[in-house]
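Suppose you are handed a protein chain with no further information: no name, no annotation, nothing but its sequence. What can you learn? This example shows the usual starting point.
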Amino acid sequence: MKRILIIGKRGFIGNNLYKYLKKFYKVKQISFKELDKFKSEINYYNHIINTSTNKSYINNKYNEKFDNDLKISKLINNKNIIYSFISTRKVYPSKANLRENSKLLPKTNYSKNKLITEKKLTKKLKDNLVILRVSNIIGDRSLTKKIHLTFIDIFFENLEKGVIIDNGNTFKDFLSIDKFCQIFHNIIKNNLIGIYNISIGQKVYLKDLILWLNKYNKKNLKKIKRSEKKIESFYLNNQKLMSRIKIKNSLNDLKKYCYQLSKDKFS
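A reasonable first move is to predict its three-dimensional structure. Written in structure tokens, the prediction is:
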């Protein structure tokens, strides 16, 4: 049985991955703060996944002392370990049908830092690295630590205020946390290395997503039009990954998940 190490205990992705992957593998989950006392055991595992991050890495210009992934990689000397780096779709510009070889255009410190880490890990780990450029992930984040707000956090915050945002025809790329975990399991099972987009792979219109998430909400809401002059749309092409793991990933799956999330939230 494969041995998996997940670093990051309090976050949304780490906790959901742990619950899902332990059904298939021998999984150990530690916090990043525990790494020093655990470093003698780190080369015991087949796969290492880091889901921890640092606020300064998100908000400030790149500095190695805030790069958790680089620190972890320096402890790895077993060439049979595959390291999973969770990158971001924000390394790309905002446009449709973005492929792994599309032009890169990070605009924020966070996305610039992710791209720098991608390059450093590639140099350090070479063929023992999988880089996952992840689109927006939605799920119940109410019980996990939030270092930065996501679409789903802002959506539910607005609902508490009795407000719903009119996003016009803006589309983005969303994936449920359940589907994300299923995809990650298949990446591990197939020992994939290289760069892959993790996404639904098609346009998800925000107006549709909001309707699905609001299905069981009985409150009267005030609709407010977004004030930005330009609202950026995007989606990631996921064919490279899906051709290798061969699982179903549809808009209807996302719709059903949003209905269930709405039911759990409002019923």
